[in-house]
Amino acid sequence: MLARKSIIPEEFALPALASRAPRKPVFRERVNKARFIAKSGACNLAHKNIREQGRFLQDVFTTLVDLKWRFTLVIFTMTFLCSWLLFAMVWWLVAFGHGDLALTRPAGFEQCVTNVKSFTSAFLFSIEVQVTIGFGGRMITEQCLTAITVLILQNIAGLIINAVMLGCIFMKTAQSHRRAETLIFSRHACIALRYSRLCFMIRVGDLRKSMIINAAVRLQVVRKTTTPEGEVIPIHQIDIQTESAVASNSIFLLAPLIICHVIDKDSPLYDLSAMELQCSDLEVIVILEGVVETTGITTQARTSYVTEEIQWGHRFVPIVTEEEGVYSVDYSKFGNTVRVATPRCSARELDEKPSILIQTMQKSELSHQNSLRKRNSMRRNNSMRKSNSIQRNNLSLAVPKVQFFTLEEGQNVAVT
User: Fold this and answer.
1) Is the CB of residue 401 less than 8 Å from the CB of residue 387?
2) Residue range 276-292: average pLDDT?
3) Are 206 and 301 in contact (CB under 8 A)?
4) Do 210 and 319 sit in the same domain of this protein?
5) What is the pLDDT of residue 123?
6) For residue 224, how many other CB atoms are within 10 A of its CB?
7) pLDDT grade for 285, boundaries at 50, 70 and 90
8) pLDDT average, residue stretch 24-49
9) How confident is the model at residue 391 (pLDDT cuts 50, 70, 90)?
10) How far apart are CA 303 and CA 335, in angstroms?
């Protein structure tokens, strides 16, 4: 038996209509992942299964500088103690071989080292030689060539140990990342219109009066990408240019500056709208490098911004004002932003459809006019309230006060 044909044509059936209907892009919820650079600038990276550990010993000085302070102090103390004990043993052997430790000595016998009678006195003499204290109770004589040779060797060894240990302590106290503690970045990044172009903006500042010479800012976008050949790159770094890059990224960091990146065709943010940015998995890394003016050491400060820390449609409030001929910076507003009219589309759509920009500019003008009207109305209300209060005070002062008091005869008399 043949199946009956449907009354509705097949091209107008529900499955056919659903297949031809335009589908909106589906945005999946972004899975929280570990950031590559922390807000403090530390790299969130763990090194595992390093087989050639001996490479760290080939550069002992850098290894000592990279150690934590507790390990550095332990190594510092043990190095001096071990060297003192080693040469104390050598001095005790010299004294024992020359016969200085014997209880009975022949007449006219001279010691190699005077007043060295035990290992304790040899240890004290070793300390006196290496740190050049010289109390005067113990000293070498010209009777023993071995003692003179040991004295020269201990002095050379002591100088080498002092140079290495003191240099290590100095480098740890004057490390470049210490200067980076006073280089600050805004907590959030902003995307807004500037000169009719979508721009990615951050704010950087220096809390010290001593400047950073040849300061340069670099921006990188880090995200997971897949090549056409199927290769997965977990950390794909893409450099993006800043607005101040004429010949280089050098900036004059005298006051807090807003670093701007124009989202153009070469930008990795060119195809991202406001909704797609929140669902994307990318991280913007900011690197500030420069030379410390006081020490001449190159320093580097880092931070990063994930999608949750990028505010679309915001810009930074001004914090530099001129007060009595001096420029003043209010760091309490360093990270403050204000909402501005910004299209929610991507930079590509904004270039392809200029009407979106015109509508946005009209909305911004209307909002600006409304804000001015509100401010003017508030000022008028405040002025009216002040004038009313002044009139009330004047009326209260003009009206004479009347007091009544009672005489002895019981009559009421009014006194003004």
Assistant:
1) no
2) 88
3) no
4) yes
5) 92
6) 12
7) very high
8) 68
9) low
10) 14
Structure letter (DSSP) for residue 43: B
The two structure tokens encoding residue 95: 């004294």
Report the CATH number at residue 157.
1.10.287.70
Backbone angles phi, psi at 7, to 5 degrees: -70, -35
Q: Is residue 323 located within the same domain as residue 402?
A: no
CATH number at residue 318: 2.60.40.1400
377 and 289 share one domain: no
User: Is the per-residue pLDDT at 135 higher than 70?
Assistant: yes
319 and 276 co-located in one domain: yes
Closest CA to 202 of 244, 154, 146: 244
Domain that holds residue 93: 67-173
Query: Mean pLDDT for the chain?
Result: 79
Distance between CA atoms of 187 and 304, rounded to whole angstroms? 9
Backbone angles phi, psi at 27, to 5 degrees: -100, 115
Please classify residue 113 by burial: count the beta carbons closer than 10 Å to its beta carbon, then call 0-12 exposed, 13-18 middle and 19+ buried: buried
Q: Is residue 10 a part of any domain in this protein?
A: no
Q: Which residue has the higher pLDDT, 112 or 22?
A: 112
Q: Which residue has the higher pLDDT, 106 or 310?
A: 310
Residue with tokens 């922390």: 38
Q: What type of residue sits at position 135?
A: F
Half-sphere exposure of 112 (CA within 13 A, CB side): 24
Chain-centre distance for alpha carbon 209: 18
CA distance 35 to 310: 14
Same domain, 147 and 208: no
206 in the same domain as 147: no
Number of domains in the chain: 3
Answer yes or no: do 190 and 336 share one domain. yes
Is 29 within the bounds of a domain?
A: no
pLDDT in tens, 14-26: 444 444 444 444 4
Q: Are residues 155 and 190 in the same domain?
A: no
What digits encode the pLDDT tens for the residues 186-227? 999 999 998 888 999 999 999 888 888 888 898 999 888 888
